[in-house]
Amino acid sequence: MFAVLLLSGFLVYSNTFSSSFHFDDQQYIINNLTIRNIYNLQGIWNLFPTRFVTFFTFALNYAFHKFNVVGYHVVNLMIHLGSALLVWWFTRLILATPVLKKTKLTLHSDIIALFASFIFLTHPIQTQAVTYIFQRCSSLATFFYILCLCLYLKFRLFKKRYLFYAFSWFFGLAAVFTKETAATLPLMIILIEFMFLEEILRQRLRSVWPFLVLLVIIFISLFSARTDSLNDMESFFNQPSSARYYFLTQLRVLVTYLRLLFIPVNQNLDYDYPIRTSFLNLPSIGSFLLLASIFFWGIRLYRKHRLFSFCIFWFFLTLTPESSFIPLKDVIFEHRLYLPMVGFSLFITSGLFSFSGSKAVEPVAALLTCLVLVYSFLTYQRNKVWKDELTLWKDVVNKSGQKSRPYIQRGNAYFAKGDFERAISDYNKLLEIDSNPFDAYSNRGLAYQNKGDFDRAIFEYNKALEISQGDAAIYTNRGNVYLSKRDLNRAIFDYNKALEINPDFTEAYYNRGIAYQSKGDFDQAIFDYNRAIEINPYHAKSYNNRGLVYQTKGNFNRAISDYTRAIEIDPEYIKAYLNRGQAYFNQGNLNRAIADYTRVIQINPDFAQAYHNLALIYSATNRKQKAIEVYKKFIQHAPARYSSSIERFRDRIKELEKNKE
User: 640 falls in which pLDDT band (50, 70, 90)?
Assistant: First the structure.
């Protein structure tokens, strides 16, 4: 049956392996230079201490797959499959506890555990935590969370198996540093201890206290890592009592979560949820009464149906970190249900077998099989939406058409595809929803800038600056437009303004360095690149450009050192390889120059300049046939859009063949 379970998971998620990176994937994976070196443990830790394990797995992915999205999806699916198997094991162990092994449920423990794992595996609400790559933090934290509980139960059910206990604590610690939701783990162990295990109080406390130490570690790590984030969240609500308003909003959110568990339709990445500021309205009061009724029902069920009581408490406890008084910027996300799904899966399966009677096993199994098949179909269909950024945000716009972020994100998706007109159309739509949105003007400026309409881009950035009353990123972007127009003095003025607002803004120093480099002020350019590197030691572009300055000054050794450092940070940085190849060529180190140009071609087989430089070396060293082969290789594989380079290379081939004669 395990083979069937694993095969089912593979089939249900078989249409996700080529799904693109999404949303936070850009910030935390694509543009995150920290994860490009698996040995950079300090940098990964500093990036996000409470998610160190998650980011380390991304670093491993990058080491093996670079940005081949298939590898990332395979790892996510393996975690999901592993979690489903752990749900099976956890269910078996729970049903073997002293309290539950006396009940009739133990007669069906095998089939209950199997269907619980199937429901967990195939439920469509899981798609966001599995297909959305960055939400590996949710699925991986759940994997460690359940594994910790399983090992703890194994220790408690089989006396003196202290190795299980040690591993339980270890994987609990791993969960803590995978995602903050693991904060509930010690409390869950206490809940399990007092609901299902029978020991004297001293024995229970002896088993639990190391996990209370883990709880202290959790709160210390959360406090040290999340202080700035919590301040940002407070400003998001723009209210003096954001914790109260967040809690009031979560009353409705929790009801939506319940609906999604039982009726998983009309799913949405970005729900349009207004912030509730008062309890005195029908939705808030109704939600509170429903949730309170469920909670007190869980208390009432404690004596006769303890497993159902536990499942209800599991739902509320596992959602506490994200759906209580702690304000988060986004009030609702489906991936937050990944861990609560364990309790739901157990609730549905055990509930049906408990209330159907011992003679109705086959009908219940048939009903659950149908349910799993329906879930599988819905999951497969939902995963189609995650194909790429455009399909995803089109879906969100259709469902949250009065919210600003979907239009920004869909506009950005059009922008990434080079469809600037549609991107601008979405930014225009945003202005219809909100007459004064900073992002609309800022992003529209970027679109016009990429279209080459620099004057209109400057107009848009001016509007964005009026709204923001001074924003370092916008000044930098406007400076970049002036840089493109070769208006270097105005560009430098804007970069200076950006640095007045944010003295540690790496991009402003980097771009100002380009401006000074263009003016021929190499010492000032080096100063700016040095400052950018000082702020961000992983800013590969600053190393590359500083190398260019040194190369211009004839200091090839320092230039090569900078190019090499840029390549260490970003092993696929084409410009750094190309520039280092030129520096080696200037030194007369032709073999290393050839190696660098060859590496550029491996990374980008359509990069004409690398072919040309490589052919020049072969030509200069009287290896004309080799040079001809290089040119022909480009002509053979280059897309039609490179027609000018193709014609130029054909002319070079003719010249070389003539000289050979």
Answer: low
Is 33:90 a contact under the CB 8 Å cutoff? no
pLDDT of residue 236: 36
Cα 526 to Cα 514: distance, rounded to the nearest angstrom: 10
C-alpha distances in angstroms, 40 versus 55, 224, 347, 562, 567?
11, 21, 43, 19, 15
Structure-block tokens of residue 654? 């003719």
AA identity, residue 601? I
CA separation, residue 370 to residues 8, 74, 118, 122 (Å): 14, 27, 11, 12
What is the Cα–Cα distance from 632 to 108, expressed in whole angstroms? 70
Label residue 439 by pLDDT band (50, 70, 90): confident
In whole angstroms, give the CA distance from residue 500 to residue 269.
37
- pLDDT tens-digit profile of 329-346? 889 999 999 999 999 999
Residue 267, classed as helix, strand or coil, is coil
* Structure tokens, 619: 């030509």
327 three-class SS: coil
Q: What is the CA radius of gyration of the chain?
A: 29
Could you tell me the pLDDT band of residue 661, with boundaries at 50, 70 and 90? low
Cβ 30 vs Cβ 66: under 8 Å: no
Is residue 206 a contact partner of residue 160, using CB atoms and an 8 Å limit? no
